[in-house]
Amino acid sequence: MSTDPSFALQTLIARLEQHLSVVSQSRGSAEASVDAAFGALADAFEDYEDALYDQYSELLPFTIPVDDA
User: Per-residue DSSP letters for 3-69?
Assistant: First the structure.
């Protein structure tokens, strides 16, 4: 069962807003809440891209950075 792209987009927008809120209230990128917000945003992005691809065979022109450490 694939996710509706419109639903996935709304989730991505909500995660973007959540990320902004957390980052604007944090004391730095090392804070756990910033890391969690980044992870939630990355997951929402991937869900949206998957839904877009499943429905329309389209990809987004972005990639999620991978921490090799």
Answer: PPHHHHHHHHHHHHHHHHHHHHH-S-TTSHHHHHHHHHHHHHHHHHHHHHHHHHS---S--------
Report how far residue 52's alpha carbon sits from residue 39's, in angstroms, rounded to the nearest whole number.
20
- Kindly list the domain boundaries of the chain, sorted by start residue: 5-56
Residue 19 has pLDDT above 90, yes or no: yes
Indicate if the pLDDT at residue 66 is higher than 90: no
Structure tokens at 36: 């969690």
Whole-model pTM?
Answer: 0.85
Q: What is the pLDDT of residue 40?
A: 97
**C-alpha to C-alpha distance for 8 and 11, rounded to whole angstroms:** 5
